[in-house]
User: Which sequence fits this backbone?
């Protein structure tokens, strides 16, 4: 393609295919202003909080963001990766990307470039789209790392990706990876993590709690498929583990604001389990591809405390799949499926 270009033509890179992984995001640091910037961007997203701007923004900017950065900063400090001065989500997503990049090289050679971005904070979606295009990616597969689709997660990541494309003179051809909540390799990776955790315990838990990030109940009524996809993930995990309906349950965490959210609420339900005689439980978070503030701080501290204060005796948090080899392989399989027609394995 470059053989016939005139000498003064802008340089043209050899054509490649980009795979851009996207996760939620992370503050750059735990201080007040870093937290405020991050929370302002996150909570100003109308996919997340869909109240009218005239009503929500004064409340957010004048009241919520005057206090919440302090408490959120303290929560992030309790889990911060001090060695790398970054959040665990950043560390894990980078490691996932490296693992998937190695898989892509093994499967496709050097024609596929893998990178990651964050919907909120850095590295921004816009900067990574620009980077891939500069590397010669004329096709980009965008992969929101949310197994279950929700407007407040998958859709807003997609929105940001398309906004980034609006600024490009020469837009690449693009595809979006659909939710992978029922992919057998993903369910199998979840099951393996449960089996490993149970195998390390002296006594098997009475209940496996599948705790998913919550959404307002109204979103389900307006057509968001998230609740149904979460329920199906739990059912498939139950079938793969070969356990009874009585040994597994679906709950939702991280409620925010005055609205009714998807129920049962994890923090309340684990206490109810303890009072009902379920003294040993394990909690897994199938909606999160990487451990983050909602798992490391909320589940492993706040939700654990609720269970123990109600009389629970043994609380086991099963980490997210993170950069586990089975997870990296599962995500790579999803990518390979979605690259069909663009490139075939070497």
Assistant:
């Amino acid at each position: 393609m470059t053989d016939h270009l005139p000498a003064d033509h802008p340089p043209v890179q050899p054509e490649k295919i980009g795979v851009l992984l996207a996760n939620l995001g992370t503050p750059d640091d735990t201080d007040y202003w870093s937290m405020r910037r991050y929370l302002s961007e996150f909570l100003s997203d109308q996919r997340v909080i869909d109240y009218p701007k005239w009503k929500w923004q004064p409340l957010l900017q004048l009241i919520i963001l005057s206090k919440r950065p302090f408490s959120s900063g303290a929560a992030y400090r309790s889990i911060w990766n001090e060695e790398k001065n970054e959040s665990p989500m950043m560390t894990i997503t980078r490691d996932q990307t490296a693992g998937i990049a190695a898989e892509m090289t093994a499967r496709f050679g050097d024609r596929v470039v893998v990178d990651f971005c964050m919907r909120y904070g850095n590295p921004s979606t816009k900067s990574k789209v620009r980077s891939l295009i500069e590397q010669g990616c004329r096709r980009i597969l965008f992969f929101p790392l949310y197994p279950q689709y929700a407007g407040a997660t998958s859709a807003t990541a997609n929105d940001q990706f398309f906004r980034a494309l609006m600024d490009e003179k020469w837009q690449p051809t693009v595809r979006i990876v659909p939710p992978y909540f029922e992919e057998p390799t993903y369910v199998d990776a979840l099951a393996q993590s449960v089996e490993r955790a149970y195998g390390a315990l002296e006594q098997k838990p009475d209940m496996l709690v599948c705790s998913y990030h919550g959404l307002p109940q109204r979103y389900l009524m307006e057509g968001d498929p998230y609740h149904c996809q979460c329920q199906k993930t739990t059912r498939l995990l139950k079938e793969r583990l070969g356990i009874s309906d009585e040994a597994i349950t679906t709950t939702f965490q991280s409620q925010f604001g005055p609205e009714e959210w998807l129920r049962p609420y994890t923090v309340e339900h684990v206490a109810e389990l303890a009072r009902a005689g379920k003294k040993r439980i394990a909690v897994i978070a199938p909606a999160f591809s990487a451990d983050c503030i909602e798992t490391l701080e909320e589940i492993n501290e706040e939700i654990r405390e609720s269970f123990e204060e109600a009389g629970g005796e043994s609380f086991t948090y099963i980490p997210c799949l993170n950069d586990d080899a089975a997870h990296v392989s599962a995500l790579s399989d999803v990518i390979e499926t979605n690259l069909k027609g663009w490139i075939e394995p070497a």
About this structure: Residues 146 and 287 are 6 Å apart (CA to CA).
